[in-house]
Design a protein that fits this description.
Mean pLDDT: 84
Order of helices and strands: HHHEEEHHEHEEEEEEE
Distance between the termini: 25 Å
Radius of gyration: 28 Å
Number of strands: 11
Structural class: alpha+beta
Oligomer: single chain
Length: 262
């Protein structure tokens, strides 16, 4: 999943505020994970935690001399014992639980894959995700109508009616020279936006990045008819019979009209 700059900025602000509540100058790993989880989701929080705590393996290419570490201390390549001392004091704080939803684990290796293979022809959406999708579509439709309204606003000189309110910027800009008041004339838009096309990533390369294409019909009157192209289901399993896919683009029609296969 792509994390845009706006979300990254929010994560940094969130973690900074958390550190300030504990009188710290900089956020620690706990603050960063909590911020990542609350701004994006649990999966991203896990990714941050895994990346931050990953310790690379020792270099075995013999390109660099490697010191062996043990509880007693360190040993150089010649086997000579080296006593290690901490140069900076460190205070061990209390253990804290990170509020992340635990990821499900397979009871045995290949369990999720077997269940997916049995039901891969019965592809269904997950209800909690459906709610998020429809809220997202509703937000885009409202945003599009608002942008269309802003494009159809006319700024006129005040004569007898305030119309839709005073145009503050235009009035201030011309007041020193013309001493006139300007008003906004907002032209109403009739109708609603029913068909919505969202392109997240154009699949125009030589190698098809999103080969999976499907048309989904609404299950009830609160859902929209959908058609989208995405990565192949089953490539990345996140639960028993549950696959994560990345959508490149989609078509949404609301209210649903039971459209034909796209």
């Amino acid at each position: 999943e792509f994390i845009d700059l706006h979300k990254l900025k929010t994560i940094f602000q969130y973690s900074r505020n958390l550190s300030l509540t504990e009188h710290r100058l900089l956020p620690n790993l706990t603050h960063l994970v909590i911020a990542s989880k609350n701004v994006v989701d649990d999966d991203y929080g896990y990714s941050v935690l895994k990346k931050a705590t990953k310790y690379p393996y020792n270099d075995e290419s013999d390109k660099y001399e490697t010191m062996k570490l043990s509880r007693e201390g360190g040993y150089d390549p010649n086997g000579r014992y080296i006593k290690l001392r901490r140069r900076h004091s460190y205070e061990y704080g209390k253990e804290r639980d990170i509020p992340l939803t635990k990821r499900p684990k397979e009871k045995r290796e290949g369990e999720w894959r077997e269940e997916w293979e049995e039901n891969q022809n019965n592809t269904l959406s997950w209800p909690p995700e459906d709610i998020i999708e429809e809220d997202y579509f509703a937000f885009i439709r409202k945003k599009a109508i608002k942008n269309l309204k802003n494009q159809r606003i006319k700024i006129e000189e005040f004569k007898s009616s305030l119309m839709d309110g005073i145009a503050i910027k235009e009035t201030i800009r011309n007041w020193a020279f013309k001493k006139k008041i300007y008003v906004r004339n907002e032209q109403q838009i009739q109708g609603k936006i029913d068909t919505l096309i969202v392109i997240f990533d154009e699949d125009d390369g030589k190698v098809e990045k999103y080969p999976y294409k499907i048309t989904w019909w609404a299950e009830h009157d609160r859902e929209s008819d959908m058609a989208f192209y995405a990565t192949n289901p089953g490539e990345y399993l996140i639960g028993p019979g549950i696959s994560h896919v990345e959508i490149g683009g989609l078509l949404s029609i609301f209210p649903p009209i039971t459209m034909e296969q796209v």
